[in-house]
Amino acid sequence: MKLEILVFDESKDDALNLVNKIEYLMEGEQNCISYKIYSPREVFNKIIAYSGQVIFFTVTNMYSLEAARRVATFHKESFLAVVSDTEEYGTWAWSLGADYYLLRPIIEEELLKTLKKSEAIKTMKFVEV
């Protein structure tokens, strides 16, 4: 089974950086994972057709927080990790039903903890950090 990971971030570079970190931590499992990268704005402009088992959603303002709320509503079965540059959105993340909250810059040890909490990833192998 292929693992679907959705990444929502205004910065494509930051999204790709996150994907690269995940691929490093899951060395040897890259062929079992597919990624879709979206801007939070796309939540309001089109229907996100893909349903990922794991969703990383970067929240930087109230607009992206509302977009995260919509994604959380329609993807209740997914593991949701909220990412932010500040602790300001931590309380909001939990109100969305987030499974994990990450602060940027993302430390590999924290990302590894996040990935290991997801039921969809528990059977995969990880690099020791």
List keywords for this structure.
single chain; 129 residues; alpha/beta; 5-stranded parallel beta sheet; 5 strands
Q: Could you please describe the fold and organization of this structure?
A:
The protein has 129 residues and is of the alpha/beta class. It is built from 5 helices and 5 strands. The radius of gyration is 13 Å and the shape is globular. It starts with a strand and ends in a 12-residue tail after the last helix. 33% of the residues are buried.
Can you describe this structure in just a few lines?
The protein is α/β, with parallel strands linked by helices and 129 residues long. It has helices spanning 12-25, 42-45, 62-74, 90-95, 108-117, and strands at 3-8, 33-38, 54-58, 79-84, 100-103.
Number of strands: 5
**Average of pLDDT:** 87
Shape: globular
Question: What's the gyration radius in Å?
Answer: 13 Å
Order of helices and strands: EHEHEHEHEH
What order do the strands of the largest sheet run in, or round the barrel if closed? 2-1-3-4-5
Contiguous helical run count: 5
- Helix fraction, binned, reads 25-40%
What are the low-pLDDT stretches, counting only 5+ consecutive residues below 50?
A: none
